[in-house]
Amino acid sequence: MSVGREMPGDEISPPVGRPRHGKADWLTGARITAVQGLFYRPEGRAGEPEAVEFVLDGGQSVLLTCASDHTLNITSGAWPGLPDWCVPAGQWQFEQLDRLPPPPYGGVWTVIGTQELRDDHGEVCEAVIRCENGDFVVNGGDTVGIRFVRG
User: Fold this and answer.
1) What is the pTM of this model?
2) What pLDDT score was predicted for residue 14?
3) Domain count, the chain
4) C-alpha–C-alpha distance, residues 123 and 3, integer Å
5) Fewer CB near the terminus (10 Å): N or C of the chain?
6) Considering the domain boundaries, does residue 81 fall inside one?
7) How far apart are CA 46 and CA 27, in angstroms?
């Protein structure tokens, strides 16, 4: 399934906040322009993000959120808006993730494939977004863990 635009043989992405269903290569061919962490900030900057939003060329986005069972929910995002569950909205904010590299020359990461690792119940516990210059590895937990592994 493509995210936000129709591609040959794919479906149109689900409405914002609805889980996507389908093949594990759901993001192949997308161009990522930014990766933002979504933080709950009632007392200032601290901790890990509650979600990570991959902003795609063309304005669409993909949101990976930790669930209470330490798995990942993968939905269409609402970039630059906050998800509906960010209440009160004034205590949530997107921030650049300092430990991730900037986009390579040209300003985008091009996705060449994805992989989902699932638990015994079939829920996604890790998503790997493979790009030409390395892989984004996103893990569920109490918060979302993300790292970039150079290829």
Assistant:
1) 0.81
2) 37
3) 1
4) 20
5) C
6) yes
7) 30
In a domain, 3, yes or no: no
Residue type, 77: G
Contact 128, 24 (CB under 8 A): no
User: CA-CA distance, 17 to 44, in Å (whole number)?
Assistant: 26
| pLDDT tens per residue, range 41-98 | 876 666 789 999 999 998 899 999 998 899 999 999 999 999 999 999 999 999 989 8
| Residue listed under structure tokens 């079939």 | 122
List CB contacts of 48: < 8 A, sequence separation 6 or more.
37, 143, 144, 145
- Are 61 and 55 spatial neighbours (Cβ–Cβ below 8 Å)? yes
**Would you call 103 exposed, middle or buried from its count of C-beta atoms within 10 A (0-12, 13-18, 19+)?**
middle
For residue 83, tell me if it sits in a domain: yes
Q: Is 150 helix (H, G, I), strand (E, B) or coil?
A: strand
Asked if the structure places residue 10 within a domain, the reply is: no
Helix/strand/coil for 89: helix
Among the residue ranges 1-5, 58-62, 63-67, 121-125, the one predicted with the least confidence is: 1-5
| DSSP-based three-state secondary structure for 149 | strand
